[in-house]
User: Which sequence fits this backbone?
């Protein structure tokens, strides 16, 4: 996909040139949504859990300052080193310094959407350090030199044959072998070597407990643990919104996370890192990068409740049919579309419009973020800040002028329907995006208003 | 009971038969229905496109036309939701509040206010229900499949009163059709793909008609069906409930 | 002002009015352990559940269900009849790369999702349950709790440097959503449920 065009509509149109592939993508993700539904229905108190999770996060947002201090204090007591990064650049600089102190050229990293958001890999590469992503899906997109297209299923857009080809090229597997079992075994062998050699491991963080200073990292593959336990230095990178108040709150989130994400009862591994093992260093990098700004936006702060389960992507009918890359942001889908404008309103002005506002995302969200309401609100902000296309603004002003003047509206309606009847070509042409793949409604002779005048009063 | 009939702009212009069916149905059920002349649009097309600030005149006009009725009823979940969520008029907020609290989408008006238990309607065909999102997830005219909550559907409840009508089961009970207001032109490719997939679900499950309570979605689905030269037709729920 | 102070100040200025934490008591209220549900969920996660009366049954079961296993690391040597490599506890963890099977004990198990709580006290070497090709866990049936809420109640303020819930063999579905067991960690998980 040509990601030089940074516009959801055009990227989505490009994605839709291969319809069978769109069907495949849609059905694969719909299957994940169905798995989520099925397992949610096994928990009678599911909706209470969502509400509870949302309220815990609400409490976190309102007390984040105190919780961050508490977390830092506990983490230090545990023997961790805590770093604070105001933005992506500072985060990258901190990580680079730690790696340079260790004198390493190659490290392993488990999944961390934060490091994607900060573009850590290219930054380290530019400084001579190679990062080996160890989540299978992330390793696959890394070999393909692509960004992940989904926060939980990074290579959901790739067919197994393409993965077979990549492995053949990079890992020397036999050409034409696209069996997932075989390819996974090949990746296991390849990455085991990396784990055993790597002296530094970077991981993401799913939850950080203020009360104990511990970090919880969830994976199915075990890659975060393989990396972190074998390394001399464990660097854990997290956004400041990952805090939960107490250990017992984890019970709520761990019941929701994997069920919402993939329809599993829980991830295979939910690892609680508190103290570095003897002789090991544990560095925690706390990153703001716009989060404190988002916290101050009343309409949008709830987006910080996100636990990165990806359920909103799996259910989103637009995401399923446009692919993660069409969002041209580290985090795609509905949640990405409400997070991204906070990072750069100009660059991501298109994303809140990449939705029909159907509301399915808000209903599956385990922390009840009002995603579709925020999409609507971002549209207003974007337009008010002058980020809408001039043609759209002019069009909307014209429509408003007609719709707010009954006489003009009547006249325009009559004229429009007349034109469609006598000269349909003026409407039904290639300049009309509606007409490209859809017929226009057949124009009736009379409007309802005219019929009513004649028949009722 | 004085009912103000709100016929959204595109129904007025392109689907007058839906307005007529709504009016006749409400009259049949004993309502005193009045259609205020001069009404235009609820302002949703602008607001959903990020131009809420341009909707002031539409809001004023709407409030002038509808402030005196006991109920306001419209054959469109989406427009009703917009009014319910966003109608505010500086200097006339009491009237706007009255309208926000008193406006109903047709099917919920029939089940909740009129509490219709019987209908003189006949429609011997296989019908698929398209659950429009704003009616469903916004107004809660039906339960949403995402939630762990008991199912219900007001449109289904009404259609089950129609003689001879057979409802078809869909593979995806409440997936969006992709109309989405201006989304349908600014995101043409995805919009059409979503519409094609909705249509295919109905066709595959044997529907002869697709019905729903939002003409905008139906217009989009009809445009696709007609381009495909499909024999499957769309009808607004009012047209079926009014069919004798 | 350094970044720490800048961030903390910005957060303080931006954070909304604090809301109370919700009550978790109803969620953590006592409820029965659903043993049948536990059996089903462990199976669905790809684990093997074997009931035992005493640990002495383990070696025979290992030979029966995990044929071809050579190097075994049992944290309690009595659980395994054969040789356990000497000094497996010392080193940075890489000494365990040849381990075919690790046998460890879980503090508790969660009936609802099949997760087993294991800490570094039981593991001795943190990487053990991940690096071994296969994993077996001994769990007493009375250590089963209904849900995660009950699990955290039991864990309480236990001060452990590392603890993990393990709920099955390592797995991935990253290639076209096809489930494959044995991603980076153990390829299989056997639970010896002591009844």
Assistant:
């Amino acid at each position: 996909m040509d990601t030089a065009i940074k516009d959801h509509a055009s990227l989505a149109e490009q994605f839709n040139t291969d319809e069978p592939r769109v069907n495949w993508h849609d059905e694969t993700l719909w299957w994940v949504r169905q798995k989520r539904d099925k397992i949610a229905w096994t928990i009678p108190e599911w909706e209470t859990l969502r509400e509870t999770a949302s309220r815990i996060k609400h409490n976190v947002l309102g007390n984040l300052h105190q919780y961050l201090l508490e977390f830092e204090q506990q983490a230090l007591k545990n023997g961790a080193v805590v770093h604070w990064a105001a933005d992506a650049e500072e985060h990258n600089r901190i990580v680079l310094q730690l790696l340079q102190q260790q004198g390493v050229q190659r490290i392993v990293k488990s999944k961390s959407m934060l490091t994607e958001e900060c573009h850590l890999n290219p930054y380290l590469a530019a400084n001579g350090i190679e990062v080996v992503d160890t989540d299978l899906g992330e390793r696959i997109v890394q070999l393909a030199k692509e960004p992940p297209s989904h926060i939980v299923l990074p290579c959901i857009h790739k067919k197994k044959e393409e993965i077979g080809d990549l492995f053949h090229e990079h890992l020397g597997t036999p050409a034409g072998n696209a069996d997932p079992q075989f390819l996974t075994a090949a990746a296991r062998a390849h990455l085991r070597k990396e784990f055993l050699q790597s002296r530094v491991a970077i991981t993401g963080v799913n939850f950080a407990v203020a009360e104990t200073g511990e970090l919880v990292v969830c994976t199915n593959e075990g890659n975060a643990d393989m990396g972190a336990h074998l390394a001399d230095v464990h660097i854990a990178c997290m956004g400041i919104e990952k805090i939960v108040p107490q250990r017992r709150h984890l019970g709520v989130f761990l019941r929701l996370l994997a069920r919402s994400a993939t329809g599993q009862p829980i991830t295979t591994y939910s690892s609680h890192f508190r103290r570095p093992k003897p002789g090991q260093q544990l560095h925690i990098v706390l990153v703001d990068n716009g989060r404190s700004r988002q916290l101050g936006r009343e309409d949008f702060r709830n987006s910080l409740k996100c636990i990165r389960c990806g359920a909103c992507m799996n259910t989103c009918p637009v995401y399923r049919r446009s692919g993660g890359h069409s969002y041209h942001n580290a985090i795609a889908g509905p949640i990405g579309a409400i997070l991204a404008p906070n990072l750069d309103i100009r660059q991501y002005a298109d994303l809140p419009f990449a939705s029909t506002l159907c509301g399915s995302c808000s209903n599956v969200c385990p922390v009840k973020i009002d995603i579709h309401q925020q999409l609507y609100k971002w549209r207003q902000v974007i337009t008010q800040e002058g980020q809408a296309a001039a043609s759209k603004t002019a069009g909307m002003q014209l429509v408003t002028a007609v719709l707010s003047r009954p006489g003009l509206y009547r006249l325009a309606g009559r004229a429009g329907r007349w034109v469609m009847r006598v000269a349909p070509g003026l409407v039904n042409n290639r300049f009309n995006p509606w007409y490209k793949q859809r017929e226009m409604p057949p124009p009736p002779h009379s409007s309802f208003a005219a019929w009513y005048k004649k028949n009722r009063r | 009971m004085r009912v103000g009939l709100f016929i959204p702009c595109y129904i007025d212009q392109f689907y007058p038969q839906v307005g007529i069916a709504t009016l006749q149905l409400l009259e049949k059920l004993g309502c005193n229905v009045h259609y205020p002349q001069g009404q235009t649009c609820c302002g949703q097309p602008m607001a959903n496109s990020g131009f809420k600030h341009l909707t002031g005149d539409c809001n004023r006009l709407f409030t002038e036309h509808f402030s005196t009725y006991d109920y306001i009823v419209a054959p469109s979940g989406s427009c009703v939701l917009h009014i319910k969520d966003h109608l505010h008029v500086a200097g006339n907020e009491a009237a706007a509040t009255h309208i926000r609290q008193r406006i109903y989408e047709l099917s919920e008006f029939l089940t909740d206010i009129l509490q219709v238990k019987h209908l003189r309607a006949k429609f011997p065909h296989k019908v698929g229900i398209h659950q429009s999102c704003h009616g469903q997830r916004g107004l809660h005219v039906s339960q949403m499949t995402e939630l762990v909550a008991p199912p219900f559907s007001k449109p289904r409840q009404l259609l089950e009163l129609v003689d001879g009508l057979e409802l078809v089961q869909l593979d995806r009970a409440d997936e969006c059709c992709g109309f989405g207001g201006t989304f349908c032109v600014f995101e043409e490719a995805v919009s059409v793909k979503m519409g094609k997939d909705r249509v295919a679900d109905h066709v595959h499950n044997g529907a002869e008609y697709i019905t729903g309570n939002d003409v905008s979605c139906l217009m989009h689905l009809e445009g696709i069906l007609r381009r495909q030269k499909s024999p499957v037709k769309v009808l607004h729920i009012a047209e079926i409930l009014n069919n004798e | 002002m350094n970044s720490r102070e800048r961030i903390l100040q910005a957060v303080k200025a931006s954070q909304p009015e604090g809301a109370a934490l919700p009550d978790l008591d109803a969620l953590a209220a006592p409820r029965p352990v659903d043993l049948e549900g536990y059996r089903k969920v462990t199976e669905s996660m790809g684990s093997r559940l074997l009931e035992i009366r005493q640990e002495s049954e383990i070696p025979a079961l290992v030979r029966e269900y995990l044929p071809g296993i050579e190097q075994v690391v049992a944290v309690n040597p009595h659980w395994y009849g054969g040789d356990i490599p000497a000094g497996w506890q010392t080193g940075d963890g890489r000494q365990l790369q040849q381990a075919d099977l690790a046998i460890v004990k879980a503090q508790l198990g969660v009936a609802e999702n099949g997760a087993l709580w294991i800490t570094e006290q039981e593991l001795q070497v943190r990487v053990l349950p991940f690096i071994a090709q296969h994993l077996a866990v001994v769990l007493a049936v009375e250590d089963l709790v209904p849900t995660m809420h009950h699990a955290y109640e039991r864990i309480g303020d236990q001060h452990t440097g590392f603890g993990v819930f393990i709920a099955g063999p390592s797995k991935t579905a990253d290639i076209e959503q096809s489930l494959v067991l044995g991603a980076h960690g153990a390829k299989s998980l056997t639970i010896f449920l002591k009844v």
